[in-house]
Design goal:
Layout lengths: L4 H17 L5 H14 L17 H15 L9 H13 L12 H17 L27 H9 L4 H13 L3 H5 L6 E2 L4 E2 L18 E2 L4 H10 L29 H13 L9 H14 L5 H8 L7 H4 L7 H10 L42 H11 L2
Antiparallel strand pairs: 1-2, 2-3
Helix pairs in contact: 1-3, 2-3, 3-5, 4-5, 7-9, 7-11
Protein name: Integrase
Keywords: DNA integration, DNA recombination, DNA-binding
GO molecular function, one term: DNA binding
């Protein structure tokens, strides 16, 4: 695919070669950058990555390359000292560096530059200790609790959707918590709706390590929607290589051999929000935040299980950073419930009023449908047993 992360990395590497040919980047520095990228690129076999480290996605390699080229256009990185790099970073922050505008770059942005050049010096023995290049503190990335959708808002949004393709997108975002890049590239053969599970497409670059632990994951409330879409609406479900999400049938001429764009996923959620009175964020990544918050707050799912479900590595710090809000007011609420100060909330945010599969009315806190067995919550025993089995397969 021309716009795939792998193709974009190729274009960026060509830009590096152009800078070297024009004399804008020293050849020694250029060679060092090439070798670093090759070492961490799983498609390259001539350079060995450092022992104990994993390969990086094309997106990560693109990010390293871009930032290293910025440094390399102004100095030879094979001969520089830590103080030289730190001065460059300071100038980027103050706006005195020729690469940046007068207002400079924020520290949170510059942290990525520091991380890239530290990786460079950690890979080589050029006499620079990476620890002598300090990292600026991370910018605050935690989720705002008040932005999370209530159960009523979740189901209000679902009820305004008037076509099966958009309903598929909505349910997949909510019930899987996956990034739009991961969802749009899932193929027919990656889903098993009768079993209520799916896998990510392992052939796709740029999923930020989500495929490293790529066992089965639960579809939860998206099970019936996926099954209905495949059985009744998908333009060609007979070919297992076709992508699950396509353009809207009848709205355009869907080509299931090509994935929809990330912008298509974003537009679906934008249109859903416009049909409701909801003012909270509802873009694809906000739905991911909702999934994690509900899983942790309402169902007390262990952090490692949540990280597995949403495609983070076991050593990810996402729960301590992005979802730090879950350790505050929500724990206060649980304590008050335990001491009888507050009535416990009995409604499950993931549980619909009626089963998506058999239309059986459901209790507000039902974990699964008592009639057909469809599971809606990540803490249901059957779901937990399947997750634990697949996490370590």
């Amino acid at each position: 695919m021309a716009n795939s992360p792998r193709a974009k990395l190729k274009v960026r590497r060509e830009k590096l070669e152009g800078h070297i040919e024009k004399g804008e980047i020293d050849p020694d520095t250029g060679n060092a950058i090439r070798e670093l990228l090759d070492a961490y690129d799983e498609n390259k076999v001539m350079v060995t990555k450092p022992k104990g480290e994993s390969h990086r996605t094309p997106q990560t390699l693109m990010a390293w390359l871009y930032r290293l080229m910025v440094f390399a256009q102004y100095r030879n990185l094979t001969e520089s000292e830590a103080d030289d790099i730190n001065r460059d970073v300071q100038k980027m922050h103050s706006g005195d560096h020729p690469h940046v505008q007068d207002k400079g770059l924020k520290k949170g942005t510059l942290r990525a530059y520091q991380a890239a050049v530290r990786k460079f010096y950690g890979f080589y023995d050029f006499g620079v200790d990476p620890n002598d290049i300090p990292l600026f503190d991370k910018e605050e990335t935690s989720v705002e609790p008040n932005d999370m959708l209530t159960k009523d808002e979740i189901h209000e949004a679902r009820e305004v959707i008037d076509n099966p393709r958009d309903l598929l997108v909505y349910d997949l975002l909510l019930y899987t918590g996956q990034r739009r890049e991961a969802l749009r590239t899932i193929r027919i053969k990656d889903v098993k709706p009768q079993e209520g599970t799916y896998r990510l497409n392992p052939e796709v670059d740029g999923l930020k390590g989500a495929t490293e632990r790529n066992g089965n994951r639960p579809l939860l409330g998206a099970k019936a929607t996926v099954q209905d879409w495949i059985n009744n609406y998908h333009p060609d479900p007979s070919n297992p290589e076709n992508y699950l999400i396509t353009a809207r049938p009848g709205y355009s001429r869907p080509d299931p051999t090509k994935p929809v764009s990330g912008e298509t996923i974003r537009q679906v959620m934008l249109k859903v929000k416009e049909k409701t009175n909801i003012t909270k964020p509802m873009h694809p990544h906000a739905m991911r935040h909702n999934h994690v918050t509900i899983a942790k707050r309402d169902y007390n799912i262990p952090d490692d299980t949540i990280k597995y479900l949403i495609g983070h590595s076991a050593d990810s710090t996402v729960m301590e950073s992005t979802y730090a809000h879950l350790s505050g007011d929500d724990h206060v609420q649980r304590a008050e419930e335990a001491f009888g100060i507050r009535e416990p909330e009995e409604e499950s945010a993931f549980t619909p009023e009626v089963c998506h599969v058999c239309n059986q009315p459901l209790e507000p806190n039902a974990k699964a449908c008592s009639n057909c067995g469809t599971v809606y919550t990540p803490d249901a025993q059957a779901t937990q047993e399947q997750i634990q089995e697949d996490m370590y397969e």
